[in-house]
Request: fold
Amino acid sequence: MATAKIMDYDAAIELFEPVLGFEVHVELNTQTKMFSDAPNPAARGNVPHEPNTTITPVDLGLPGSLPVVNEQAISYSISLGLALGCSIAPSSRFARKNYFYPDLAKNYQISQFDEPIAFEGMVEVELASGKTFQIEIERAHMEEDAGKLTHIGGATGRIQGAEYSLVDYNRAGVPLVEIVTKMIIGAEADAPELAKAYVSAIRDIVVSLGISEAKMERGNLRCDANISLRSRADVAFARASGAPLPLGTRTETKNVNSLRSAERAIRYEIQRQAAILYDGGTIIQETRHWHEDTGVTSAGRPKSDADDYRYFPEPDLLPVEPSLELIESLRAALPEAPAVRRRRLKNAWGFSDLEFQDVVNAGLLVEIEETVAAGASPAQARKWWTGEIARLANASSVDPSSLVSPKYVAELALLVELGSLTDRLARQVLEGVIAGEGSPAEVVESRGLAVVSDDTALIAAIDEALASQPDVLEKIREGKLQAAGAVIGAVMKALGGSADAARVRELVLERANA
Amino acid sequence: MSEITTDVVAHLADLARIALTPEEIETLAGELGLIVQSVAKVSEVATPDVPATSHPIPLVNVFRADVPGPTLTTEQALAGAPEHDGSRFKVSAILGEEQ
Reply:
C-alpha cells in the first residue's frame, strides 16, 4: 500500500473546513435474531459460538422460509429512537436492499428505506474541554446484520490477493439499529475529538438503555465516518456573493472499531484530503478502510452504479405501527440521559472539569455516586476511588468496583472525616477490607488501628520531640511556624502514624509557647 | 414514469447478474416498457388521498416473542453448499466488501 501524502493538521484546518457525518450500527442484545428465532450471538452475556451454529433456514434465506419480526427488537429500537430525541414513526416498513455479496445468503438485506422507525433527533456531545455540540440525527432504522467473511490466501486476511473466502452466517440476522446523523458543520479543529465523543455518547446511551453489549472490539457498535473538506476561500466567496455554500466530495471510512480509531481516522482523512485538494487534485467519492495498525486509510470500493440497491418494500413483512401507549410507556421508562446525568452529578459534586473528566474516564461515576449516597462527601469519595482504590485495582488488573463496596468506602471516608483515622491508617484499613476482614469498623477494631486521640499520650510525645530539637523549639517561639513541621513529623513517627496531624500541630504550637 | 430504454435494461441485468444478449435486451425493453405503461394506468384513477400501499391485506404488527427456537446443525446448514471447509461456506474471493 503506497503511503498517501498528508498535510500538517493545523495547516489543513486553516485552509479547509471539515464537514462530518456518522453512521453508527448498534447490535441489539435481544435473545434471538431480528427475523428468526435463532439465538442472537450478540445477546446479553453471550459467548462466542462455533461457525454456522446459530442459524435457521430464515438466516440462510432458504426457499420457503419466512421472516417474522422480533417484538423485543422493536421495543429496543423505539427506546433507542426516543433516547436519541427522535420522533417515532406511526407506521414504518421494512425494505429489501438488493446486492450480491456472500455476507448475506439471500442476495438482499432486510433494512428500512423511506420509512424508518425513528427520525429527526438530537444528541448532545461533550468534549474534554467542556465544549458541547448538538448533533442532529436524521434517522435511526432497523435492519439485519450480515455474516462474517474470512479471506484466505492474500496478506493478513485482507480481500486483496485472497484465493477464497469462508463464510460464517452466525451474525447474519442479528438485530441492528443504524443511526445516521445529518451533516455536521462547525466542528472545525475539534472534528476528530467530536467523532470520538459522538461514538462515545451513543455507546453511553445504549449502555444506559441496556439494549446492546456495546463492545466496539466485538463489533457490537461500529462507526462509518463520512468526511469532506471545503476550502475556506470558496466558503467566503459563496457567502459574499450569496451563492449556496459549496460541499466537497466525501469519503466514507469503515472499519472504525474503537473510540480511538474514530478520532485518528477523521484526523487522518482531513490531512489526506487536504493534501490532495491543496495540490489541485480531486477527492474520489469512495469507501475507505481504516487500518488501526498503520494509522492510515486505504481506498476501497468506489461509489458507482453498484450502489443502486433497488430498494422495495419487503413483501414478507407487514408494516410496524407501534401504539401510542407502547411508545409512551417506553418513553416513561427511559433512564436519565447520560449527558444530563453527568451534568447533574458534576454540579452536585462541585468537581473541577479536570477532576470530573478523570472520574468519567476512569468509569467511576456509579461508584462515586453510590459512595456519596452512602454518606461520604463527594471529595472524599473521589479521592478514595480515583486514588488508593484505583491504584490497588490497577496493580492487580481488576476493576476498582470489584475490590470494595461503595458502602465500605463511605464508612472509611467518614471515619477519616471524624478524625478516628488518619489517611495512613485508613489505607491500612482499606487493605484489611479488601482482604475480606470485614467492614472498616471491624478492621479498625481487629487490627487496633484507631487514632490516638488521648491528648496525654500526644503531649508526652510532643514534649519529648520538642526537648530533643531545641533549635526547632526556638524557631517556633520566634514565630517561624513552618518549623513545627519537623516536630509534627517526629511525633507522627513516634506514634506510628496513629495520630491526627492537625491536632498534633495545634498541640505542638501550644506546648512550644507554654 | 421514466422510459424503459435498452440502457436501463442492460443496467438492471447487470445489477441482477443476468447475462442478456443485445437481442434479448431489445425485446425486454419493449416488453418491460409496455408493462410499466400498463401499471402506470393505475395512477390515472388514484387520487392524492389514496395512500400508496405495499401490502394488500390490512394487517400490521405481526411479531413473535423473543424466545430462541431450534437451529440447524452445521451439517444441515452446509448440506446445500457447493463447497465448504467443514464448518464454513467456501466462496470464491470476490473483490468487494461488506455493505
User: Anything to note?
Assistant: The mean pLDDT of chain B is 87. The radius of gyration of chain B is 22 Å. The longest strand of chain B covers residues 89-92. Residues 6-45 of chain B form a domain with the Histone, subunit A fold (CATH 1.10.20).
